Structure to design on (420 residues):
């Protein structure tokens, strides 16, 4: 749970890319195994998830149209042996009303992404009874 | 106002903990006196505050049920001689509608927290006429 | 697109300042040419933008009153030869309802800002056909 700082990446994702897939591919190609992620921009037709405990899966909320990516916040760690980005997003419509949740996918119009690599012991997601894949809980 | 980088913590808060209390205890036990905080996850029955200038106190907004923690953004500094986390949150319901404000409390279902320690001159909150406890203003 | 870490600034913006102007002036006076920015606080009468692709300009959404600054997320890079902050905000009203988009301006009641300087090759915004000023796209 304690890490040192690695590399820092600040970049624009090409228009038309699917944002989550791109972040995961970026992490994989650059061998970023642990890190923090944040971004702003504009997304088209984003799909976001709300975790439904009873049914142990994400309910999918499909938004149509173009939304300001007001915040993207999350992290990178290992799932199934590969770097995996878990990110949540807030999205604004043309009236400034916000929607958000767990990012499932979104087409990039603009995305300015910061990844801060962390170095240390492997941080791995493991399947839980809840249906989620999570790190071990920290103890203080 | 200028700091060097200290330790970096990325961890999952145990399910059932109260998030703000846990972050404050984590900071205290690890002696993190200054830092930045961000997180994502899922919270139950969160209480958020909106500062009411006229009455010089937070109005409390109690949300019932389970919300995606879309963003948690804030910092750690000293208040009353102890590390104190000041964090704001955006929370998404099952339709993806967002609510948010100053985090007062929230029960953790999932919380993935990043704390980036900063090292330097003490950064302390002091009571203000407004009723808030704030750092001195910077001058540029 | 790859940077090393520079200085770290955590500070409170004086009450009454216009937030975006202050961040830009802070960056200029401290010679922060590249970086990440995040903040929380409370803003008065914020103006936010939603980018209208068809008309190639931001539609302006004027909010009246006092809003919790639930998140401010963004970056600093060079535009027209000077440091330029591009930031998006989520803003909460007294019921906890969130609004947000591209920050155009907002009067500070409270603003606690973190700037993480990045050092490396110049990162510059250039005018695009869309009407936006953006960095070159990254290739992976």
């Amino acid at each position: 749970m304690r890490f040192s700082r690695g590399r820092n990446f600040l970049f624009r994702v090409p228009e038309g890319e699917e944002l989550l897939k791109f972040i995961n591919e970026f992490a994989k190609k650059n061998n970023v195994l642990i890190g923090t992620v944040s971004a702003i921009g504009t997304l088209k037709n984003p799909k976001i998830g709300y975790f439904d405990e009873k049914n142990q899966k994400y309910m999918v909320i499909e938004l149509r149209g173009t939304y300001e990516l007001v915040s993207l916040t999350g992290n990178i760690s290992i799932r199934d042996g590969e770097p995996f980005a878990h990110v949540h997003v807030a999205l604004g419509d043309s009236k400034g009303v916000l929607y958000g949740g767990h990012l499932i996918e979104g087409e990039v119009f603009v995305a300015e992404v910061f990844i801060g690599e962390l170095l240390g012991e492997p941080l791995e997601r493991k399947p839980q009874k809840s249906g989620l894949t999570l790190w071990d809980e920290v103890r203080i």
In short: Chain B is about 10% helix and 60% strand. The longest helix of chain B spans residues 19-30.
